[in-house]
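pasting for the record
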Amino acid sequence: MKCPNCSNNIEFGNACNICGIDTVLFKNTIRISDLLYNKGLTLAQAGDLSNAKDSLNKSIQFNKNNYYARNLLGLVYCEIGHVADALKQWIISSSLVSENNPATKYIENLQNSGKDLDLYNDAIKMYNQALKYIVQKSDDLAIIQLKKALEINPKLVDALNLLSFCYLIQDDKALASDLVKKVLAIDCNNPIALNYYKVIHQTKRAPKPVINITETKRAVYAGQGANRISKEEHKKSFGNKFYFSGVISFIVGAAFMLLISYLFILPSISSDDAETIATLQYELEELESLRILDSMEHENALRARDSQISDLNATLATLSAEVDVQDRLNRMTLARETFESGEIVEAASIVYAISDTGFSDEEIERLENLRMLVFASAANILYNEGLAHVNADELDLARRAFETVLLYAPEGASYLPDTTYQLGVIAESEEDFERAIAIFTAVIENFPNSNRAANAQTRINNIISD
């Protein structure tokens, strides 16, 4: 038997003596990856991009070399406006297989639209700035940023959802509803848009999926299309620009042509006429000089204004950063007080949300010490709570507790193998077999010397055999 990974001939057993993989497990992993890819393809063709994205990401988790899944995931990312994520998947795909791989053409199309890539990057920056404005409760400023982002990238689903949220804050359900419909036209089962739909229409029933997939798009998803990303799709059309200076130049030029014609066509010319022509010529030259001077003064005024705006923006950014840093330092103090009062899990949730961006070395050290103090205690408490919920058959509560343990637990904690294993058991009991296999595989790979590794392998074999 040949090893499916390195093509080595295996004489005895299932394990390859060259690369060390279990051939049975390897083949099953590849099969699961292909099944998830097929599921993602079906969902993408039906316009259910959120679930297609999840399925394709799982497919890649099982087989990172599945370049078909990466190509399709890139197309899905493009459909929801995540061009950078799409490019990342296609670059990885082309590095895996270089010949006859459509990812190469997708990359070329994007690279040929370098200006569009810069614009998409600006749209993401505007979206991130809008998030900051919302945190600061400045929803009007957030709306301005989001509208600009959507002018650049109308398919940016995250921006559409966030703009819907802003309108809901302002109690403008009509505008929010229009945006929700746009999202559902792109991604018919987008969970955020569906949730907003229920809020707006005061109903528990979600709208029927809006399937808006053209035949061309179906062909691309099926692997038959050629150029999914076209430069023409991203071009913006601009109206003709009208410059006052151009009109003046035209008038001046026309006047000179009339003067030349006048000199050559008439057989004779009086001295009075010559003087008149000279006067006109002088006036026209003076008019041209004034036009140039006005243009220069106007440009200088614009530069001065832009410089003032730039200085004000820099000052505002500095002040905002200082306020943000101070706010996070205050939350550190609150977290320590909460911890000392015995509310350890609550303190951990506060600390987890604190970023050290902009902190001094001393402040970063204080935050790290606080994390070590709070996280270790919170993880231990949540692990015991998770076991108690398992014994009480409260699987949803148990899963939340164990997932939080993985966020807080220090490296090498003795309960990490069992915590991960318990999450796999919960997934299996909920018949989410794909997720269960992924978790049990993580137990085997990350904790090979633990007692739970053998148990995880047994459960994988049972799931596959069933």
